[in-house]
Write a structure and sequence with these properties.
Layout: H1 10-19, H2 21-34, E1 53-58, E2 63-67, E3 70-75, H3 84-117, E4 123-127, E5 134-136, E6 141-145, H4 153-165, H5 174-184, H6 187-194
Parallel strand pairs: 1-3, 4-6
Antiparallel strand pairs: 2-3, 5-6
């Protein structure tokens, strides 16, 4: 739907919309992704991260614990596990598992890729970011999203290489993409694959 101000004709408004067609379509796709139904985590629906299996157990109190190999959800009788509050609680437990895995995998992998391609960075941190897979500061501190643990290894490597390239090229200009393509093998192709994923689930 297009709202046209009284001072403008419908014809001029339509012409304006046509000039913004690509931008409108791009943001429609982005909005659809954001509105995509979230995954539900329930006892009868098996789920596991790379290293942790999600389990449910009825108990006398509501809680969770993340142990080696397992995310245990404890819930009381009558609990509505499908409620928004409980699903957020379960995601909190899963994110704790992703954080554990990310701290073990991502700094080590960043070191390996930096050494292989002769990049130098300051330090690596992992966090649960809402929208970005990673970032590189002006002093070459690299931050990586724990949600990377949901991606295939080749895309994890691509994101890490993306941030490592920012230690040399601080923008997304031609030199940046040429460098990223050189070290990743297929920057544009891998970038398109990453766009199939979101940082929320």
């Amino acid at each position: 739907m297009v709202t046209v101000p009284n001072s403008k004709s419908f014809k001029s408004a339509l012409a304006f919309v046509k000039t913004k067609k690509d931008w409108i379509l791009k943001n429609q796709i982005k909005l659809i992704k954001q509105l995509k139904p979230r995954h539900f985590f329930l006892p009868d629906q098996p789920f596991a991260t790379n290293e942790h299996k999600l389990t449910f157990e009825q108990s006398t109190q509501d809680s969770y614990v993340v142990e080696p190999g397992e995310i245990k959800i404890f819930y009381t009788a009558g609990t509505d596990l499908e409620s928004t509050g409980w699903q957020d609680f379960i995601r909190e437990a899963i994110d704790e598992a992703y954080r554990i895995e990310a701290k073990k995998v991502l700094p080590k992998r960043t070191y390996e890729l930096a050494k292989k391609h002769n990049f130098k960075y300051n330090k690596v941190s992992v966090r649960n970011a809402k929208t970005r897979w990673g970032s590189c500061s002006g002093i070459n501190n690299i931050s990586l999203n724990i949600q990377l643990m949901r991606l295939p290894i080749e895309l994890i490597d691509y994101i890490i290489l993306h941030e490592l390239c920012h230690t040399i090229e601080k923008n997304h200009g031609k030199k940046f993409w040429a460098l990223l393509d050189k070290v990743s093998g297929d920057a544009k192709g891998l970038d398109n694959e990453v766009k199939k994923y979101t940082t929320t689930y």
